[in-house]
Amino acid sequence: MRRLIEKGLMFGNLIRVDSPAWLGLYNRALARLTGRETALGEFHIDISGFSPEVGDELGDMDYLSPRGGERQFILLTTEQKTAPLLNSELSVLRDVLRRFITENESQLFSLTARDAVIGQIDDRVWSLETPADLATLRHLSIEADTTGNHVAEAERLGEMIDRFRSRPDAWWDDVLIARMIEQARKSGDVLRNPVRLAHTQFAMPDFWTADFGGVYVIRSCQQPAMIFAEAKQQVEVSGFLTLSLDDRHQVAAWLARNALAEPIINANGADAAAILRQKIDFILADAAIGLGIETGSGSRSELRRAAARMGPDLPDEISGLSALHRYAESGGDWPVIDSGDPAYFYALRATSGPLRDLINRLLSELAPRDVRQLFITHKPLFYKLYQGWPDSQRDYVVGILAREYAMDKQGTREALFGAEPDMSETGSAPARSGPWGPARVKLAEAALVRPAGPWGRASGGND
User: Would residue 455 count as lying in a domain?
Assistant: First the structure.
């Protein structure tokens, strides 16, 4: 992982902790949560307060997720909202933490000015025994307070104030008044400076989890589905269409019926020819390195020469993507490519909407040789595959990501996937006429067959 770290592609944008005040607050919080402290004089933390350096020192990279339990967090500053989330096994966790910080920012700013805020994210589910239990995950709640219990102390004072205001004889209750004065010394003036955290409940209708080998749970569409990375983990779940990544034709049909993906070549604002050309380059480089064919610096001309030497070993994805690339540049007849073609999922991107990032993550698993999309949308899988690559492939991929992503992350994401979706959109994707023809609205009547895709009618039956 050294190459990724040196290029700022791993552990980037973390918050540095090096002041004596922050070090003291962090150790106080760490002791409350784990019973341990760090002796480091400087380290970096993510949005949840997790530090890879502290994890390495403690010999426990899960020290804020003990024994697979709920994710705990430490907030030293509201600026943590801009940091990434490391070691995430649930796709929505970073967004939930960011929203928690943003929606309670004034309160948290006041609290972190004098103490660290600690807490945990609770899914309200006691245990996940089988994949079917994932259907019960619908909300995440956050329980938080300072190490000095300022929120709890403020709530106690608030309850006393409410009692004082509601009782007509409260002015003569010397005991209540004395208790209020004493409590105010601990919590401060909660009327002028309230410290109640109001936004602590978050819905999670759609998510990816690393549990059970990796599962996508998607409810916010016309036909809810669970899609399993490993077919052996797949089980029937009431109320969901259940598929695995091996069910390529059925997954393609589901994406089409729910208007969740579109061909890059038809996407508004996309430079389809450039995107397809880059995907071809990534696939050729991956194949050449696997075959031991020299690619030099990995330039386009060198990759073309490497492709000419592959002969029958030329990747199956190249034919379909090359046909699409020629169509994007020169026009002509629409290439006939169906969901049985290895190029099919490489030529798609998610449609705009709240599900965009999750669907792009799913597409990256179906088209894993596009290393740039894989890195952007599914870092856990990228890091897993990266560890098994030879050094030459690591050098090539890191160089590509450093040049074509790290220099302009936001611009690259918009070029590949479109503008950021409007997160206020809710509900299922609209039925609409798209590249696959009119969307099938009557789901009970929709057969799981190879779709007549944007590149022509599929051949064959179900697989």
Answer: no
Q: Domains in the chain: how many in total?
A: 2
| 387-422 burial: b if 16+ Cβ within 10 Å, else e | eebeeebbebbbebbbeebeeeeeebbeebbbeebe
Does some domain include residue 173?
Answer: no
Residue 86 lies in a domain: yes
Q: What pLDDT does 457 receive?
A: 38
Give the pair of three-digit tokens for residue 208.
Answer: 């990816």
Question: Which of 455, 425, 428, 416 shows the shortest CA–CA distance to 267?
Answer: 416
Is the pTM here over 0.85, yes or no? no
User: What are φ and ψ of residue 105, in 5° steps?
Assistant: -60, -45
- 72/122 Cα distance (integer angstroms): 9
The 10s digit of each residue's pLDDT in 57-105 is: 999 999 998 765 578 999 999 999 999 999 888 999 999 999 999 999 9
| Residue 244 CB neighbours (<10 A) | 19
Q: Are 199 and 269 found together in one domain?
A: no
| pLDDT at position 462 | 37
Q: Which two tokens stand for residue 443?
A: 């789901």
Pair (118, 264) in one structural domain: no
156 domain residue, yes or no: no
Tokens for 421, please give them: 């979706």
Q: What distance in Å separates the CA atoms of residue 293 and residue 306, rounded to the nearest whole number?
A: 6
